[in-house]
Specification:
Chain lengths: ~350, ~100
């Protein structure tokens, strides 16, 4: 705990936080002890209790650190129901927070909230669902990025090498609409539809998919497939990670009239490919090929090894024939946790 | 939160992870003129390391081998780290362009 200089104005306190490196570049809510104590109480945590240890770097992350970050991000104690399982997943060794923070891939942590909690906490799911100016969306999304930036860098010992990064590294959250056509996102991981869940995936920025003239579901799905499988998408060689396809209402109405979710996924999986030899010509496949990567130059190649690496989420404004593809980071494992049972499910790790 | 006296003072809670007490032994000087190369499996890592090995061998540095990480983005298990820790020369892990 650090004593703040007396008679410091709020602008000075915020500047002080920035100078200490306690921020993401934007002003933060100063983590005053009384605010952090309220957050700890809501989370059911003891300040000095250990949440994670990094034995390589000899560092310990305690409950007070994440409670402080939640305050700094602008979260309210009433968000604790999500913040606690979210924190546990972010710090799970299987998520690999240090790699997520430091990779040249410049990924952010994409947070997806689904189930009744979306309505209960007042998440926004409509227009601009991926960049909404609503506190619960923006602050929980920001919290995940602050954990990456502060804890993933070991408090500043490590550098974030992202070549370009993307704006989602400040806040990157989608809440799935309660007015869905298909079952909720988390059912793709075996959870019951009536459960509330939070998911995390290290991800590149969202790729917009525009199709306003399609008259059939197949035209929309094929457009999504072509957008997903562009030559520069990261996953062609390792085929790890995965993709979240965010379908907005106008596209979804067209697709769901002819396809259920599994059929739509399989349709995209079959078409989201490029000729492997063309990928090799472009330099997307190395000259010295690792046999474990199962590269067949005479076949077409998908950026995923299995169809179930393609996931759907439903959100967005009611007007506009847009969808979005969110590419997962190469070998990151998507984590999903139930807010009701605490059960954790993950995507299948890539084979190495 | 306030303190006694004429001036108020609020406390801020640091979000930074804290060091685990105890020594952290680090070897900064190789004990023999050799190198063990470890491929990170990042793009072009193996090609770069092979060339590095050739250059070091030309300088008289013994090449003890070229291994590969199990995964490009995850840490190694403790048994593997312990084995590498036995190496008396330079351990070069990497690299990507």
């Amino acid at each position: 705990m650090v004593a703040c200089r007396s008679q410091m104005g709020i602008d000075q306190v915020i500047s002080d936080c920035l100078e200490r490196g306690w921020a993401d570049g934007l002003p933060v809510v100063p983590p005053y002890a009384e605010l952090v104590d309220a957050m700890l109480a809501a989370l059911g945590w003891t300040a000095s209790a250990t949440l994670a240890r990094d034995e390589d770097l000899r560092l310990e992350i305690r409950c007070e650190h994440l409670a402080s970050l939640a305050v700094m991000a602008g979260c309210l104690p009433s968000y604790a129901r999500i913040l606690r399982p979210l924190s546990e997943m972010l710090l799970a060794p299987t998520f690999g927070l240090r790699g997520v923070a430091t990779t040249t891939g410049g990924v952010g942590i994409f947070v997806l909230v689904s189930g009744p909690v979306v309505t209960e906490l007042g998440f926004h799911t409509g227009a601009n669902a991926l960049g909404t100016p609503v506190r619960v969306n923006a602050s929980i999304g920001r919290f995940a990025q602050l954990v990456r930036h502060i804890c993933g860098r070991a408090g500043g010992l490590l550098e974030e090498f992202g070549t370009l990064g993307h704006p989602g590294r400040l806040s990157y959250l989608l809440a799935e609409s309660s007015e869905r056509v298909w079952p909720p996102f988390h059912t793709q991981f075996g959870f019951a539809a009536e459960e509330s869940c939070v998911a995390i995936m290290a991800a590149e920025g969202p790729n917009s998919i525009n199709n306003h003239y399609a008259e059939t579901a197949e035209q929309v799905l094929e457009t999504i497939a072509l957008g997903l499988a562009h030559a520069g998408t990261t996953n062609y060689y390792y085929q790890g990670g995965g993709y979240v396809i965010v379908v907005a209402p106008e596209h979804l109405d067209l697709i769901a009239a002819r396809f259920d979710r599994t059929a739509a996924r399989d349709f995209i999986y079959e078409r989201a490919r490029m000729p492997t030899r063309e990928l090799a010509r472009l330099g997307r496949i190395p000259r010295q090929i690792d046999p474990a990567r199962c590269v067949d130059l005479d076949a077409s190649r998908s950026p995923v090894a299995r169809a179930n690496q393609l996931l759907f989420a439903q959100a967005g404004g009611s007007a506009g024939k847009f969808s979005a593809v969110i590419p997962g980071w190469v070998t990151n494992v998507t984590h999903v946790k139930s807010l009701d049972s605490g059960r954790l499910e993950t995507s299948q790790p890539a084979a190495f | 939160m306030s303190v006694e006296g004429s001036e108020s003072c609020q406390l801020l809670v640091s979000p930074l992870p804290v060091p685990i007490p105890g020594p952290l032994p680090v070897s900064v000087v190789a004990r023999e003129r050799s190198v063990l190369l470890v491929d990170s499996r990042k793009p072009n890592a193996r090609r770069i390391l092979v060339r590095v090995g050739e250059l070091l061998q030309a300088e008289g540095v013994a090449l003890r081998g070229l291994e590969a990480k199990l995964q490009p983005v995850a840490g190694e298990d403790s048994a593997r780290l312990a084995a590498w820790n036995q190496h008396r020369g330079l351990l070069l892990l990497g690299v990507f362009d």
